Task: structure prediction
Amino acid sequence: MAIVDKSTDYFNATLYTGNASSPRTISGVGFSPDLVWNKCIDGGDHRLLDQVRGANKEFAPNRTLAEFSNNSDGNLTAFTSDGFTITAGSTNINNWNKSSDGYVSWDWKANGSGSSNTAGSINSTVSVNTESGCSIVTYSGTNGTATVGHGLGTKPNWIWCKALSAVKNNTVYHSSLGATKSVYLDETSAATTSYDYWADTEPTSTVFTVKKDGSYDETNGSGINYVAYCFSERPGFSKMSEYTGNGSADGTFVYTGFKPAFVMNKKTDGTMDWHIWDNKRNPFNVINTLLYPNLSNAADTLTSLDFVSNGFKIRDSRNFINANGSPYIYMAFAENPFVTSTGNGSIPGTAR
Result:
């Protein structure tokens, strides 16, 4: 599989400051984003939109709420060739353009509004970029056990499933946990085998399996509409894996094969928040400004880690990132690959 040489063709983080103007175009993403995850750094819900569902159809991943349309207060109205257009925001913290507040947008490229996929027992609509391993999938649940096509051509390492037409948890499959376990993005709970959302069945290169487990229909309730964000690892661009903490203030090194632009982690053997670090809010080491995907809190400043040319170096002994012997899952996307594919592949990436 080829190395992704230019990560910013497929993922980027963008910063802007709200000014309450309307309409306002946010540019500098570098491509037309198909998945936009937005967060006010000064506080307020996370917001997620994608081109398959369409502009202004969003949900808050830190909450269990169904999808909603925010037509009146600082929302995204259109995707552009280099970003997106937003409207003015009032004093309500849950908007996209409150005056003087800081915002970060994490953006991924898939393939526009998507097309029909009939690989599974449930027909799905899929927007997929096989080069970067990003797929946006929508489908309608059927109860019981079913399969859903994702279009990636390789087994997903990460599946994030959210009910759009019902109040349900944001449920995550991670390849390091396996299909017998799941974890909620909107909660602090440890990974659990209590609910069989993935039917104890690993995803394949064409489909993932979903199941209604008793009354728990986070992935396959009858008539419920769902979106699933599926990612497969790509050399030089993305990594979804696990590390074990060592309890040392000098921390541990996690190899990804690239200089990270984005890292999200979760301790899986106990109660703990999720955390996100990125290269735009902290352009230089130490990377110490984190956001909590499961909370609406403002950004927090904690000594945490360094982004280096081939991974990230943890510099903290605390429970949220490096408890001795504890497992942590993570998802990371690249700023630059460690080694490019140019010529004989011997051109190394740069350190910070």
The radius of gyration is 19 Å. The first helix runs from residue 319 to 322. Residues 9-108 form one domain. The chain has a mean pLDDT of 92.
